[in-house]
Amino acid sequence: MVSRIKRLLIGRPMKSTEIEGEKLSKLKALAVLSSDALSSVAYGTEQILLVLMTAGFAALWYSIPISVAVLGLLLILILSYRQTIYAYPTGGGAYIVAKDNLGVSTGLLAGGSLLVDYILTVAVSSSAGTEAITSAFPSLHDHRVLIAVLMILFLTIMNLRGITETASVLALPVYLFVISIFVLIVSGIIKYATGGVHAEVHEMSSAVSNISLFLLLKAFSSGCSALTGVEAVSNAIPNFKKPAERNAAATLLMMGTILGVMFIGISLLAYWYGIAPNSHETVVSQIAETTFGRGAIYYFIQGVTALILFLAANTAYSAFPLLAFMLAKDKYMPNMFMVRGDRLGFSNGIIILGVLSALLVTVFHGNTENLIPLYAVGVFIPFTLSQLGMMVRWINQKPKGWLFRFMINTIGMLTTLSITLIFIFTKFSQVWMVFIFLPIVILMFFRINRHYCNIADQLRINIEQDKPVIKGSTIVVPVAGITRVVMHSLSYAKSLTDNVVAVYVGFDDESIERMEKKWEEWNPGVRLITLRSSYRSVIRPLMKFIETVEWKTSETDHITILIPQFITKHWWHYLLHNQTSILLRAFLITQKDVVIATVPYHLKR
Amino acid sequence: MVSRIKRLLIGRPMKSTEIEGEKLSKLKALAVLSSDALSSVAYGTEQILLVLMTAGFAALWYSIPISVAVLGLLLILILSYRQTIYAYPTGGGAYIVAKDNLGVSTGLLAGGSLLVDYILTVAVSSSAGTEAITSAFPSLHDHRVLIAVLMILFLTIMNLRGITETASVLALPVYLFVISIFVLIVSGIIKYATGGVHAEVHEMSSAVSNISLFLLLKAFSSGCSALTGVEAVSNAIPNFKKPAERNAAATLLMMGTILGVMFIGISLLAYWYGIAPNSHETVVSQIAETTFGRGAIYYFIQGVTALILFLAANTAYSAFPLLAFMLAKDKYMPNMFMVRGDRLGFSNGIIILGVLSALLVTVFHGNTENLIPLYAVGVFIPFTLSQLGMMVRWINQKPKGWLFRFMINTIGMLTTLSITLIFIFTKFSQVWMVFIFLPIVILMFFRINRHYCNIADQLRINIEQDKPVIKGSTIVVPVAGITRVVMHSLSYAKSLTDNVVAVYVGFDDESIERMEKKWEEWNPGVRLITLRSSYRSVIRPLMKFIETVEWKTSETDHITILIPQFITKHWWHYLLHNQTSILLRAFLITQKDVVIATVPYHLKR
C-alpha cells in the first residue's frame, strides 16, 4: 500500500546508469537554476521602498540610484562567479572553494550558511509567491501559510521524481515570467512616456535632505536581496551537459543580463508611478494594476509571478541535496545524504529541505519581510568567503594573467563583505538568529565528523595480521514451555554445537517442577536450567544467567542467545502476545556482547 | 530516567510471595468495595427527580414511593448476591456464574457488559465527583473535564502502587462520607420536624393525575442507578481475608443497610425541602445548603461527597483487572492482562481502564446525565444473567433447601430483567450504544480465543515422537567492506560451520572489483560473492541471493543470516548510520524462514 502510493507520486525506480540522461542543457539550466535569481525581482524593489518609506514619500526618489548601485554589484558578482566556474569545473560552490583555499573551518562556515540559506530560499520564495497570489485575491490572505506549505509539499514531490522532469515543468513559467515582466516594463514605459499615468511623482524636496546615511545603506542592503540566487549556477556545474563550464558560464551571463534589466525596469516604473509598498499588495502587483488595470493581463502577470516564485524555491531543491551530499562525502553530515533515491535524486536531502522550510514558513507566518534579511545574510557570507577563497587561489597558483583575475575577485570580495557588514550593522534586530544558528550548525559538522573518524578508527583492521579466529561456541536457548518453536530452536542449536543449554524462568516452585518433569519425559538431549523469579520478571534472571555464562566461557567460546519469536500473520495479532522475546533482544543487544539469533516462527493462522 | 520516575510513582517492586499481605479485612473491604454502591446515593435521588420534573413540580411527590421500590429491589439483590458468595467462594462475578451454568457465550455476554460497565463506573463516578466540587465552587464548572481526568490519573497511579495502600487512602473518606450523610439526614429531619424549612411542599394536586406509567417506570429505572456497585463484593471474594465467604457476606449486608438508609433519607429530605434538580448544583448540595447554609459543614459534605465519588471509581480499579485476568486466563482477552506488575496488581488492566474511562469522560464532556443510563444497563444485564445462572445451578445441583434459594434468585432475576427491559424501553435513545458496543466486544472475545487456539494447535508437539533433529548449517554474512565488525562476524560464523559465504552488494563495477581484490589480499578463508545492484538497493539483491541459497540448501541445512550491527553509544548517533542492517532484519524476519543472528558491535566512542 505505502509502496504503491510511493510509486504513484515518485514514479518507477531508475537504474544508476540512467543518470547521464538527467543532465541539463543551457536553456533548461536557465529555467531550473535562474528562477531563484530572476524571481528576486518580485521583491527586490519592494525591499528598498519599504526602508525608504520610513523617511517619507519624498525619499522614494533614492530608489533609483540605489537600484543602479545594486546593478553594479550584480555585474561584479557575475564576473567573479564566472571565474569560479572555470576554476572549479566539477562544481565550485562556496563550500568547495572556501575549503580548498581557506581551510576546512572556513569551508564549513560557508557550507553551513549555504545550507541554512537554501532552506530560507524555499521559505522566502514560497511566502513571496503566496503574497503574489493574495495580492490578486485578497480573500486568501488568511490562508497564506497553508498555501505556502502546500506549494512546498508539491515541490518536494516533484523533486523526488527527478531533475529533468522538474525542469520540463519549470521551463515554461520561467520563460513566461521573463516575457511578461518585459511586456510590463515596455508597456509601462510607453504609458508613462505618453502621459497615461497621473501619479504624484515626488521631486527632490527639502524633506528629503535629512535622510540619513544609515537609512540609505539599509535600503541598499535590502535591495541586494535581489541578488540572491546568483550563486546557484556555479554550485550546479556537474548537472550541466558537456562542456559543462562553458554552458554554465553562458547561463550565468544570460541570467545576469535578464535580471539586471528586469530589476532596473521595475524600480523605474515604481518610482515613476509613485508606488508605495503596502502589506496587502506587492509593488509588482501595483505596477501591473496601474499599467493594465485588474484585467486578464494583470491576473496573468500575478499568476506567473507566483509560479516563478514557487519554482524559485526549486533552485534550492537542486542545490541543497548536492551540498549535503558533498558535506556527507567529507563526513560532516550523516551518511544518509549520500544515498540516491529510486529516481536518482538525493531523496533525503530533498525531504529534509522540504520539512525544514515548511517549518520556517509556519513559524514566521509566511511573512517575507522578516525572512528576507536572514536570507540575504545567509547568502552574502558564503559570497564573501567564496571570493576570498578565489583570491588566495590566484596568489597560490599564479596562472597567466592572474593579477587581473585576482583584482576582480578582490573587488567582489570587498563589495560582498561590505554588504554583509551593512546588513549586520543596519538590521541586527532581524539577523541576530544567524549568529546563534550558524555556530550550532558548524559545531554539529565537527561533532559528526569526529564521530565518523572515531568509528573508522575502531573498525579499521590490518589485513596482514587481523584474520578471523575460530573459537568454541555456547548457545543459550530461553524456553517458556515445550512447543514446536522450542523444538525447532533446539534442532537449530544442536546442529551448530554440542554446548547447548535451555533456560526456563518460573515464577513459583510448582511450575518449575512441572517443567523439569516434562522436560525429562521429552528428553531432547539438551540440559535444562531452571531459574526462579521472585519479581515475575523474565528478563532480569535471564540477564543474570547470561552474565554467569559470559564469565565462565567468553574467553574460549562465542556465546549465542537463541530467541524464538512468533511472527504473527497480522500486525495486530502482536497485541495478543507478550513480546518478551523482543524486549529480551533489546536488552541484550544494548547491554551484552553476545550474538543474538532470532528463530522466526511464522504463524500460519 | 523513566525507571526512576516509575519507582517514585509506583514504589519498589514486590515479591510474588508478598501477595497474602495484600488481602482485605472486613472494614477495609467495606471501604474499597462499597464506595461505588454507597456513592450512588449522590446521584440516585437526583436521577429520579430529573425524570419526574418533566411532568412538573407536583410530580416530585412520586419520588417517595419510587425510592421505596428501589429500596425493595436493593433487598432482593442483597439476598440474591449473598447466595452467590457462598456458592462461589473463589469469586462469583457474573462472568463466572453465567459461564458455569449458562454456557460460554452467555458468560462472555456478562463478562463483556461488566468490562464496559467498569469503564463507565470510573467515568460516571469521576464526573459526578467533579459535579460535587463544581456545585460548591461554580467557577470551576468550565474545567470539569480536566478535573475528572486528573482524578482518573491519580487513581490509576494509586492502583498501580497496590491494593492495600489504596485501601488505607480510601478507608477514611468512606467512613467520613457515611458519617456526614447520616449527620445531614438526622439534622435535616430535625430541622424539618421543628419547622425550620419553608419550602413549598407540593401536595397531591390535580395536575399530577395525568402522569404516565411510562414516566413513572422511567423514574424508577433511573433510581435503580443507585444500586450500581452492589455486585462488587461478590466479584472480589479472593481479595478478602479468610474466611473469605463469611467476611464477604457480612460486608455485603453492612453495605446494603447503609446504602438503603442513606438513599431513603436523601429522597425524603429532597421531597420535604421541595428540591428540584438543576444542572449547576446537585440535589445533595442543595439539601446540605438548605440544612446548614454555605458554611464549613456544607463544604465538608461536598468535599467528602466528591472524595467518595472519585474513590467509587476505585471499585472498578479492583474489579476490572481481576475480570480481565479471568477472561485472559480463559483465553478471551490478550495474555498481557495476566501479568502482575511490579506491585502485584494487574498493571495492564489498571492502565487500560484509566485510559478508556478518561477518554469516555472527555467524549461526554463529563456529563453524568448521559453516562448514567448506559452505566445502569451495563450493570443490570450481568445482574440478570448472574441470577439466571444461579437458578440453573440450584436446579442442577439440588442441595438441601434448594427450592427456597431458587425462589430468591428467581425473584431477583425477574426483577433485574424487568429493570433492564424498562431501561431499554424508556431510555432507548440513551442506551442504544450498548447494543453496538457489546456485540463488538463479544466478537472480539471469540476472535481472540480462536487466535490462541490456532496458535496452540500449531505449537503443540507430541513429546514421544517429536525430537530435535540435527541438520547441516549454512551461514550467509552480508559485508559492506573489510572492517573489524566483519572480521568479528566471520570469526563467529567460521566457529560454527564451514559453510560460510560472505556477500557484498556493489553499485558499480569499480567498487565490486576493488572489494574483490581487497578480499583476496585479506584472504579470511571465506568465499566472497559479489552482487551488482542497478537500483542502488542493498536489500533486494540480498533477498534474491538468500532465496537462491534457500532453494539450494534448505532441505539439508539450517540457513543463518549473520547481520553485523553497530550499537552506538548514544541513541542519536543512530541518525548517523544508514541502518541497512535493521531494515534487512525486518525484511528477513517477516518474509523468510531463516535464522537471523545479530552480531552487535558496541562502539566505544
UniProtKB/TrEMBL annotation, chains A, B:
It comes from the Bacteria. It is a multi-pass membrane protein. Its main location: membrane. It is found in: Membrane. InterPro entries: AA/rel_permease1 (IPR002293), APC_K+_Transporter (IPR053153). Pfam families: AA_permease_2. Keywords: Membrane, Transmembrane, Transmembrane helix. The keyword Nucleotide-binding does not apply. The keyword Cell division does not apply. The chain crosses the membrane at residues 60-81, 102-123, 143-160, 172-193, 213-237, 249-276, 296-325, 346-366, 372-390, 402-425, 431-448. This is Amino acid transporter.
